[in-house]
Protein: Polyamine aminopropyltransferase
Amino acid sequence: MIEPHAPAPPGTTPPWAGPARLPVRPGTGRFLVLACVFVCAACGLVYELELVALATYLIGDSVTQASVVLSVMVFAMGIGSLAAKRLRRSSAAAFGALEAALALVGGGSAMALYAVFAWTGAWGGVWESAPRCLLVAFSLAIGLLIGAEVPLLMELIQRIRRQDAGGAVADLFAADYVGALVGGLAFPFLLLPALGQLTGALLTGTVNVMAGGALVLGLFRGDLTRRARRLLLLANLVVLALLATAAVLVDDFERAARHAVYGKDVRVAVQSDVQEIVLTGGTDGRSLDLFLDGRLRVSGRDEHRYHEALVHPAMNGPHARVLILGGGDGLAAREVLRYPGVDRVDIVELDEEVVRLARHDPALARLNGHVYGDARVHVITADAFGELRRTPTATYDVVVADLPDPGITASTKLYSREFYGLARRVLTDDGRILVHTGPVATRPEVFWTVDTTMRAAGLHTVPFRVGGRAFAFAAGPDRTTGASRAAHDWGFVLASPTARPPLRLAPGEPRPRTLTQAALTADARAAARTRVEGAPVSTLVHPRY
Structure:
């Protein structure tokens, strides 16, 4: 690339660090370098956030994924910065090659991670860890390349006009941090909602390679040999062609990957402001499945077992006013509305797109009994925690918490002592709350932590489980149908503010299709046998899930 130079005598400036031959005035050249720093910093942060977001969606547990990505990337940036010391003799050519590599790796990271998740996740065995390993590999590679940028850019800006090291570092870091701010805001507010994760990453890579190539081939072309210029131009064109090809094929790729994840029967796939919603089946006698962010939330094969256990034990008593937290699919409301004497059902759902599908999708509306056509049903689009804070005291006779499992980080606050304290406040004195806690057999610690936390909030609890489920309401992405991996029960906790409620079905009609009083009693005994002594209390500032 750059012709080698002989070592400079001590105390003198080496030839490769002398003034650059620029086609513009030094002031303009300095501005262009800082502008490139700004763009590269924005792109680097987008790569980082894209890895965190996609890993959270695919693997789950946002705290763990963010910690892995950030810690590995920061470590790699330090190593990359040290490694860049060896490239100072050819800083312009090295920076151009580095940006081309970073654009290709960062821009293609989302597609690669999604592909590995989609096509290896169902293989089981060692392949289950493939997405996590690839996440670490991308974090390491991107961190190394980002870390090498700053020393090379420092060398380039000093070659335009020598200045004290402190001033140069201040200018460089100012442009870098402002660029990171713009990239950090652009990702959630522009790239993700407008383009999605895959196209957004590809566009970021395109901007990255164009900025790096323009700086080196335009401003520092005098530092490169003719052969180096040709090689760097070819590398940039190849990277641009690869990114452009991927962008053209991204819709077909996403469709094929979605089929690999959910099967060939995908009927609806919607990316809302909150999550990805996928409906499969529901026609020609095939069972309807609802997936939220890759997690199976409703299976038409056995959803009635879950929703009967979630609703019916809580309806034994006054039930004129019922609050359903979550449950935008309308299936819990379907069971509530079977009871005479229900005057009002409020459904608090964060994602209005789920409610829209529950209203208008023929298969889902048929499964929920067209509950949204009932004048007693009212939808509140809000976060469940915030809505409880706004609800007056003693408003509801029954609260049904149909929420994602506590193992999902975003749901942790909805299983906290503070949350149950708010739920207790909105209940009447003889009201009941029934909470879904996730599987008992595979996660007894979580189940008993929920029970302990509810008791700490002043509720009197009756834990129970329902066994025999055919498919998992998964706490993480679950694309298996094998009995060896699917959880085979659901855990629930029934509670009341004033006294321990009886675990009994309401007398008379309606009668659940599968749930019986004998089964409920047996399920409570079965849950008691899994008791974990000394389970901690989960709070907002000290989550235990």
Q: What stands out?
A: The chain has a mean pLDDT of 89. The chain has two domains: 25-262, 302-475+488-528. The radius of gyration is 29 Å.
